[in-house]
Amino acid sequence: MLTALLHAAKQRNATDAVDFPDLPEGAGGLPRLTSEPCLGAGCGVCASVCPTGAIQVSESPGDAHVTLDRGLCITCGACIAGCPTHTIVNERSTRTAVVRREHLVLHNRPQEPAATLAPRDDPGQGIFGRSVEVRAVSTGCNATDLEVAATTNAIFDCSRFGIQFVASPRFADVLLVTGPVGRAMHNPLLRCYEAMADPRIVIAVGTCAISGGVHRGGYADANGLTPHLDVHAFVPGCPPHPWSIIHGLLLATRRISDSRILAI
User: Fold this and answer.
1) Chain-centre distance of CA 43, in angstroms?
2) pTM for the full model?
3) Which of 52, 47, 106 is nearest to 79 (CA)?
4) Which helix (H) or strand (E) holds 105?
5) How far apart are CA 30 and CA 186, in angstroms?
6) Are β-strands 63-69 and 105-107 bridged in parallel, bridged antiparallel, or unpaired?
7) 240-252 b/e (C-beta count within 10 Å ≥ 16 → b)
8) For the CA atoms of 103, 107, 111, 113, what is the dihedral angle to 10 degrees?
9) CB contact burial 110-124 (16+ within 10 A = b; e otherwise)
């Protein structure tokens, strides 16, 4: 026993010293758009290689407009590798979660100001300031499930943010959903949600949970979580990084904020 304690005392702290660090150089992340000029339809490589139709290229006189929907992106990296102008590059930030679906749609050119959005309902009214209980429901994405599980390990240690995972929805404040939400999971997921006490928060984690990803539009009616429940945070990626998942949990519970939240 004494030997084990001495060994433990000599070990360095494994937990990340910096919250939400950037991905290491060379690590694959989500794509992002830059202001570099796009060749437009004369190139079109990015749109042609995207397996989910997440990229659209349109042209106006003397300009090419690129739209990238991270809610459809499966982070295959084909668009980044194929873009000759570096209009699409790798995103190294792990602060990728957003509170509105439309915030996942990026543009390479400034857009006209959108109509003022109605204030987002805050089901928690700021009550989750110190701790939050999470019920995770998988509807069929093992990769994202593994990243959710990784948030609890010694490196990320979500418990230091007051985030605890629970087995029963009756004890949960947050419903965290992964996978494309196929037809067979519609009723079980709704029953899980209905078993939770108010206030209830819902988070879609991973591209499948946001939009259905490669499964959308198929026979299984697997088009993501949005058609079934009001979602309070979206964490893009296939799968998302554990830090991005923690970022989404803290955003949804108003533990942290960013410019997009402050603007609405």
Assistant:
1) 29
2) 0.89
3) 47
4) strand 105-107
5) 28
6) antiparallel
7) bbbbbbbbbbbbb
8) 0
9) eeeeeeeeeeeeebb
* pLDDT tens digits, 58-114: 877 667 889 999 999 999 999 999 999 999 999 999 999 999 999 999 998 776 555
What order of strands is seen across the sheet that includes strand 233-235?
163-165, 132-138, 174-178, 201-205, 233-235
Contact present, 180 and 208 (Cβ < 8 Å): yes
For the record, the structure tokens of 39 come out as 């060749």
Torsions phi, psi of 194, nearest 5?
-65, -25
C-alpha–C-alpha distance, residues 124 and 101, integer Å? 19
Two tokens, residue 184: 């067979």
CB 25 within 8 A of CB 243: no
